[in-house]
Design brief:
The protein has two helices and four strands. With about 80 residues, the protein is α+β, with helices and mostly antiparallel strands. It has a four-stranded antiparallel sheet, covered by helices on one side. The longest helix has 25 residues. The model has no long low-confidence stretch (mean pLDDT about 95).
Length: about 80
């Protein structure tokens, strides 16, 4: 997994990911937080990587929090599967 910072300002962050599924998952988790805007796009289905845009107070922290929430969700799913 690779993340490349494209652009960063006080309330804006744009990163490029190498995985469309992960971009979608992070975007979904971002919307569960207090953000102004979050979206991802992919310019070409085969020739480009998805770019994720986050706008809000401290967007880098918002992105990290979204990633941590995904990890916690996976741990919870793993525990449920072990009990099943």
């Amino acid at each position: 997994m690779e993340v490349k910072k494209i652009e960063e300002k006080d309330d804006f962050l744009k990163v490029e990911l190498d995985n469309l599924t992960l971009a979608n998952l992070i975007n979904e988790n971002l919307w569960k937080q207090k953000i102004d805007y979050a979206a991802y796009s992919k310019k070409h289905p085969y020739l480009s990587n998805p770019q994720l845009v986050v706008k809000g107070k401290n967007p880098k922290k918002l992105l990290i929090d979204a990633a941590n929430q995904i990890i916690e969700d996976c741990k919870e799913l793993q525990a449920q599967l072990k009990r099943a």
